Amino acid sequence: MTVLRLAWRNLIGAGIRTWLNVLVLSLSFVVIVWMQGFLEGMNRQVQDAMIATEYAGGQYWHEKYDPYDPFTLSDAHGELPPAIAELVRAGNAMPVLVVQGSIYSGGSMRPVMLRGIDPRQDIVNLPSAFLVQDSGAEELPLLIGSRMAKSAGLRQDDIITVQWRDAHGTFDAREARVVKVISTTVQSVDIGQVWLPLDRLRAMTDMAGQATLVTLRRGARPAVAPAGWTFHTPNDLLSDLRAMVKAKSGGTSIFYLILLFLAMLAIFDTQILSLFRRRKEMGTLMALGMTRGRVIELFTLEGGLHGVLAALVGAVYGIPFLAYTARTGIGMPKMMDSMGFAIGERLYSTYTPGLVLGTTVLVLIVTTIVSFLPTRRIAKLKPTDALRGRWT
Amino acid sequence: MVNNGVVIATDKLVKKYPMGRNELVALKGVSLAFERGEFAGLVGPSGSGKTTLLNIIGSLDAPTAGSATVLGSQVECLSHAQAAELRNRHIGFIFQTFNLLPVYTAFENVEFPLLLLGMAGADRRKAVMEALEWVGLADRARSKPAQLSGGEGQRVAIARAMVKKPEVVLADEPTANLDAENSHNILHTMEKLNLDLGTTFVFSTHDQKVIEHLRRKIVLVDGKIAADERLQPEPDRSKP
């Protein structure tokens, strides 16, 4: 306790030198928390959007379905087993049929995924109601995402040609109208995807009653996956996304390291300077009855307390700043789409107690270690040499 | 002379320092004894071994050979922690350059040894103010060393050395950086504390102003005792 009190006095007594170090360290502190909160917010926002728009309460996949291999699609469909069909009948699940196809627009052919969806579904956050048609209507209604529309040069009400192969491998084509261009943050329902009524797609492909995957309503209890089908929880479905976010956050760790390194350099420099400028003081402390161990403790604590002060100072200006960014969010440029996952127009940071406490503890530990390292020289210091201002 | 009991004794003390391939012999078999309440000085030219002897007595250094016993503890046998404990509880130091801790106020400087002793807050504050009153600086308690004159700084250093009421105070050239008037005031203060509290004072000096106040003068030349003179009789402390 005595050493802590003395360290505090020395630290405050050092005046501007202390406050400059504290300012640098507190900046690192706030920026690290902010960046981590930013990533955490992005992670949550993306997950929430994907669950709301695509995964809901999980998905049953046909056993041959592999979303990363379009060549599997020709075989990845089947009739719904009774257990799943019962979920669909009860309104707790919706089948989706995925078929490879292509669209012809603007003088070029583009490969797309034709996704059949029940226009009246309310399980995922897709405006499928735009696909509702009068019975017997000939026109094939299509729903596409804004990215898809942009890349294909399409607008609402454009007429395009859709080509596909039916269950027997026969090519067929039909004119279709883009009834709605939807704006979504979830790229996997947008880029390269064309949505049309499930019944029409089933009829077009001669796959009556069949589906590639079945999406379960959030909160609905999944049935045991029947033979030929596998159930994927939202957690499973988001694992790739998590891996991607983790990989991207690995890159931002370099920023933390640079920031921490700069702050620690300031602390280390102060400690080294102290050791050379305050040798006489160390000698005096020993003459007054401090052991070398306590002198080391004192100097280490002085350095370590920079971290405590930085946390306090950081809290003064950091909390309002972080609260503001969490509340108002940060506008995301369009180019952020290249991140590879769904990011909204505004990104809201998320700060958890674990994040703030973890960062605080990390900075305090690193500061204390950096403060301790130079002071090890004191262990070899003779009091008589120190009093003369010399190192042994 | 009244025998008040030996507090410091050295026996054939030798101290050698390595100097490249050679060695410098700073003390060559010094045998001395100081009794409780003495006001004595080690006198001699630079390099005569005064500070070395003072450092060994103060358990800041250990002898190469021989023995130094301070308040019953053999300095050469003490661990670092035991030596620190001896200095903390029983020995006060006064340095030529005052060695006040620059970021502390006068009060905090004087308080420092008591904090190490773990003295309770109220007792500590009382003792610090009492020590500052001894040296006439109670009104400068909140001043930092940079705001004090040289004489005031050394008086704070005396208060720091005396605040724990140690048995022994070791003063290394305490007036070397002071003018005549301040030197006189400092010495007068230390004499008074010596008489009032019975503290043993041992000086290292070659300042004539200090020598005039000493009651015992030990002349060191080239690491050996050249003379050991009683200049004034010790006061009889057995009388009230």
Automatic annotation (TrEMBL), chain A:
Sorted UniProt keywords: Cell membrane, Membrane, Transmembrane, Transmembrane helix
InterPro entries named in the record: ABC3_permease_C, Lipoprotein-release_system, MacB_PCD
One Gene Ontology biological process: lipoprotein localization to outer membrane
Transmembrane in keyword set: yes
Main localisation: membrane
Transmembrane residue ranges: 20-39, 254-276, 296-319, 355-373
Record domain MacB-like periplasmic core: where: 18-223
Cited Pfam families: FtsX (PF02687), MacB_PCD (PF12704)
Domain ABC3 transporter permease C-terminal: 254-383
Source taxon at top rank: Bacteria
Membrane topology: Multi-pass membrane protein
Compartment list: Cell membrane
Cellular-component GO terms for this entry: plasma membrane protein complex
Keyword Transmembrane among UniProt keywords: yes
Family: Belongs to the ABC-4 integral membrane protein family. LolC/E subfamily.
Protein name: ABC transporter permease
